Amino acid sequence: MSTNITDYPNVRNRLAELGCNDPRGFAILPVNFESAHSIADFRNLSEAATVKKLLRNADLPHGDLVDRESRPPYIQNNTFEWVAPTLFISGSLASENPYLVSVALGTIANYVTGFLNGFAGSSNHTVKVDIVVEQNKTAACKKITYEGPPEGLKDLAEVVRATSNE
Amino acid sequence: MNEELPAFVQSFNTSIRDAEVFISIARARELQAEACGAVESLLRDIASEKALAIRAANEDYANFLLGCECAASGVLAEIQMWLLLKDEKPDEAWNRLIDAQSSYTAAMRAHPGFRHLGEARDRLQAIEDLVFPPQVFISSGFIIRVQECSICGKEYEDCEHLVGRPYMGRFCYIIARNAMLDHVSIVDRPADKRCRITSFGTEGGNRNRMTWRIEPNEQGEVETRT
Predict the structure, then answer these.
(1) Which of B105, B118, B144 sits opposite A76 (nearest CB)?
(2) Residues B125 and B166 in one domain
(3) Residue B217 has what pLDDT?
(4) Which residues contact A67 (CB under 8 A, 6 or more apart)?
């Protein structure tokens, strides 16, 4: 199991640059969020739709970067892995409502555990998840990369909270 | 599910136990073929029972019967795998092995009553590793404009169904609309192990990766390489 924290471009600036909506709470970042020239270039992982509805079904605050009619195409990779989309967590949510972060990560972890249930070797299966956290004071962003068993995702809530308060 | 098993489930358990006897290469071919026929008949019975459960809106029982369907399909595929291996048809046997693996995995997802199939899944993994030669797998990636939900037909992102979960006796999966091939790559762990390189060109034709025999290429020509 490993958790790495690295710098990430300022998400709010990038959203403004590209003319995206300004999501509050949780949001899914397209795979090419850092390099896209426009909204039309965006590509989402197929799994992004699942994570969005997990957040919605759990009544967690979330928003879309683009309106429904501009929804980007999905990338569907037919591999055995469950590939997690990049989850963005706004600074206010991470520092003021760490409980919701914990609920969101727990919900995703439960789904992935169930999804992998039944596959040979599923007991030692790992997932890789990128979480971009906005720092509450400066709006600077950090990327938390987690690689390990799905159940370990739940424990990232504290890392998210600490990162947002840096 | 009630503590007391419905008559249909008791009968299913007996039929499956009877069929499982033939999951072995040592069993007589004609008895294995007979067992396959019995499982096919069982699958028809399960489908009828599931239709009744759906009509009665009994979701837990419908999902349980989905698990029965998957488990029976797994047993059928496993017996057929041994029959095909005896017939020296390893490529087809491989497909049945993967069918059996997928079926047991699906049964475990369909209903908690099938969690015990982890043992069967591990046995099949051992068969894959020990009986068949190593394979080279291929995986494809697509760009998809619309993902449609198999359960409700709505755009997948907008409905509440989740991929891989059972709903009233059916699994939710994504129907890809307006799909465009993005890439094909060689991977260690593909979603579908039936996607593999089956042969490669060599002197005298194509070498089958299973049998290692050299076969004529698609045009029926014998290739000669110098």
Answers:
(1) B144
(2) no
(3) 78
(4) A21
Helices A98-116, A46-57: inter-axial angle, 10-degree rounding: 130
Domain that holds residue B147: 137-186
Question: To the nearest whole number, what is the mean pLDDT of chain A?
Answer: 90
Residue of chain B whose Cα is closest to the Cα of A72: B145
Helices of type H across chain B: 7-20, 29-55, 59-86, 90-110, 118-130
Same domain, B215 and B149: no
Instruction: Indicate the residue of B118, B179, B190 with minimum beta-carbon distance to A80.
Output: B190
Q: Are B78 and B12 in a shared domain?
A: yes
What pLDDT is attached to residue B148?
A: 97
Return the ∠ at Cα B109 (arms to B105 and B112), rounded to 5°.
120
Looking at residue A34, its pLDDT comes to: 95
φ, ψ dihedrals at A114, nearest 5°: -65, -40
The domain tally of chain B equals 3
- Cα gap B15→B39, rounded to integer Å: 8
**How many CB pairs below 8 Å do chains A and B form together?**
79
In a domain, residue B2? The reply is: no
* pLDDT tens by residue, B9-21: 999 999 999 999 9
Buried b (16+ CB within 10 A) or exposed e, A134-165: bbbeeebbbbbebebbbebbbbbbebbbebbe
One domain, residues B147 and B221: no
Q: At how many degrees (to 10) do helices B7-20 and B29-55 cross?
A: 160
Pair of tokens at residue A70: 């501009």
Percentage of residues of chain A with pLDDT beyond 90: 65
Residue B68 is assigned to a structural domain of this protein? yes
